[in-house]
Specification:
Helices cover 34% and strands 20% of the residues. By secondary structure, the chain is an alpha/beta fold. The chain has a single domain, classed as Vaccinia Virus protein VP39 (Rossmann fold). The protein has a seven-stranded mixed beta sheet with strand order 3-2-1-4-5-7-6, sandwiched between helices. α1 packs across α2 and α4 packs antiparallel against α5.
């Protein structure tokens, strides 16, 4: 994959899972540089459509919301609201904790927690984590994010969940795959139902869908037009726009 926006390899240690951002068994992290590259490609497509932002962002398979949190920290100037959902209650609890780090209050609470660890254990890793938390606080001091919400939902369900927002500008998700995270759905075709349900939540004229998945999943649907396809190792990333009649 050729990077267009994140052309320089820089250190993202402040965003490491388990450092300041929360981590838990069964949740996954995501390459920070790749996340930033993908969201900036989404921004560019929307800007070309005449939508200048700030934008609403939704991940319907959020897990621990690592992906959303990283994007919110790095691109808070371009985002006004963030929504996260998952079928897994345990993952959602981690998601809520991570998303709280997008506010100064949430980061202050995390810093107090890390300071307690330093008093108890005096480990160099905790001292470094506190330094990272301070830098993240400075990073979001001028954030445009006004709303953050996490809720339980099965994006493959046939019944509509009223908690799901509508007229979303960007849906971005890392689809379940592999041994760590898999689909937890009663749907006979969860991928098709995923596309159909996401379609209903998008702003028809000013939206994009970015999907990351393993190469074995066929990412296409009659309601979406493919705009970009890139391969990243064992993964693929596809950006779609909804087809408006």
């Amino acid at each position: 994959m050729k990077y267009i926006y994140e052309t320089n390899k820089t250190s993202y240690e402040d965003f490491a899972s388990g450092r300041v951002l929360y981590n838990a068994h069964g949740t996954t992290s995501f390459p920070v540089r790749l996340a930033s590259e993908i969201i900036q490609r989404c921004f560019q497509i929307l800007e070309a459509k005449g939508s200048k932002g700030p934008y609403s962002l939704y991940d319907p398979c959020c897990g621990g919301a690592y992906l959303l949190t990283v994007i919110g920290l790095l691109h808070h100037d371009k985002i006004k609201s963030i929504f996260a959902s998952d079928i897994n209650d345990d993952a959602l609890r981690i998601a809520e904790k991570n998303l709280s780090l997008l506010s100064i209050n949430g980061l202050n609470k995390r810093k107090q927690q890390i300071k307690q660890y330093i008093q108890l254990y005096n480990k160099a890793s905790h001292i470094s984590a506190l330094e990272s938390a301070e830098r993240l606080s400075q990073l979001i001091s001028d954030s445009n994010i006004e709303q953050v919400s996490a809720f339980q939902s099965d994006v493959t369900a046939s019944t509509h969940n009223s908690s799901i927002p509508d007229k979303i500008n960007i849906v971005m998700t890392d689809l379940p795959y592999g041994d760590i995270v898999t689909w937890r759905s009663n749907s006979p075709d969860p991928l098709a139902d995923f596309f159909a349900n996401v379609f209903e939540s998008l702003d028809p004229s000013h939206s994009v869908l970015a999907v990351i998945a393993d190469k074995g999943q066929k990412l296409k649907h009659e309601k979406f037009k493919r705009l970009e396809l890139v391969k990243i190792g064992k993964r693929q990333m596809v950006i779609f726009e909804p087809i408006v009649d």
